[in-house]
Amino acid sequence: MMDTAELSALLDTLCPMFVLVDERGKIVNAGPTLQKLRPDEPMQGKDFLDVFELVRPRTVTTTPALLSLAGGKVHLKFHDEPRTALKGLIAPMPKGNGAIINLSFGISILDAVRDYALTSADFSGTDLAIELLYLVEAKSAAMEASRSLNLRLQGAMLAAEEQAVTDMLTGLKNRRAMDVVLRHLISGNSAFALMHLDLDFFKSVNDHLGHAAGDFVLQQAARIMEEETRNEDTVARIGGDEFVIIFKGLVDESVLSDVASRLIKRLRQPMMFENTPCQISASIGTALSTQFSSPNAAELLNAADQALYEAKRQGRSRHCPYSTLVESE
Predict the structure, then answer these.
(1) Are 202 and 291 a contacting pair, CB within 8 Å?
(2) How far is CA 138 from the centre of its chain?
């Protein structure tokens, strides 16, 4: 016949949330997981009914009545906070020497695991809670993997969307992006200016110094255009050496002429590629949305293109507003 110490050691392994009480209702031993719920308050030696409040059956209010519930089920709560709900099964000891009360959580096992930082080591190896914990861990791992995959997919989608509207050589917007911006501004009846810029003598750079030099010039020109415009403006490369700048909310021709002059001045400066100067200039034509009663994208682009052509006809490296063409008609 095993003694109390041997029995407790066996119960620690088989049912770590047990309470062993003697015939007076005093707690002889408590399982390691149960004691973990009150780490600073040893249960051993205390009266069972002083530690736990018996919720059901309500008719049981004394230790003898409790111990008489052979094979009976009980519902309990801790007397102190947190008043975690528990349920248990009573197994009387031989010869009226008390009882073993095997407890489990009456609340959600997930709440208990969270509230008391329990792990699989706190449960019997055959407890269904172990399987549930494994499922929860698997679900958490799957959710984390899904979240990570979703983030990568979102990143890939954003990258693809960005590439769809970006000129990959210069990093500027492309023609598709320009069309979107124009549709948005026109549909919103917004005032804006459209500047069409063409690089003069760019073909000569490509022919004499090669495409690598040409790419370098395009990248430098793009940088200059971005530096001379505002954050709310759109700079787009729409062809080989053709660019469009959309100035949102800016229709002051004197201000636009100053911007064009700065662009022309900077683009006229030699760009050094592998110790070789690349010499270009820029011709610019500008049209305003306010110059048309019901502007559309094609009409504005055509107006700016006409002004650009006039700038080239006048000798290149200059700016021509569309308004000067209208006035001369």
Answers:
(1) no
(2) 22
- The tokens 């200016």 sit on which residue? 193
Which of the 8 DSSP states describes residue 87? E
Does the pTM surpass 0.70? The reply is no
Domain residue limits, the chain: 4-124, 127-164, 175-328
User: What CATH number labels 4-124?
Assistant: 3.30.450.260
Going by pLDDT thresholds of 50, 70 and 90, the confidence category of residue 200 is very high
137's enclosing H/E stretch is helix 128-164
State the Cα angle at 87 between 81 and 89, rounded to 5°.
140
Q: Which alpha helices (DSSP H) does 39-127 contain, by range? A: 48-51, 63-67, 109-116
Cβ neighbours for 68, distance < 8 A, ≥ 6 positions apart: none
CA angle (90 as vertex; 86, 92 as ends), nearest 5: 155
Ramachandran area for residue 125 (φ above 0: left; ψ -120 to 50: alpha; else beta):
alpha
Evaluate the CA torsion angle 45, 47, 53, 57 in order and state its sign.
positive
Note whether 16 and 124 are within 8 A (CB).
yes
**In the structure, what pLDDT confidence band is assigned to residue 219 with cuts at 50, 70 and 90?**
very high
Q: Which CATH architecture has domain 175-328?
A: 2-Layer Sandwich (3.30)
Element spanning 37, H or E: none
Residue ranges of E strands in 139-209? 192-200
Compute the distance between CA of residue 154 and CA of residue 202 in angstroms, rounded to an integer.
39
* Average pLDDT over every residue of 162-167: 79
**Side chain identity at residue 87, one-letter code:** K
Residue 80 backbone dihedrals phi, psi, to 5 degrees: -100, 170
What sign for the dihedral angle of Cα 34, 38, 40, 45?
negative
User: How do residues 301-315 score in pLDDT, each as one tens digit?
Assistant: 999 999 999 999 999
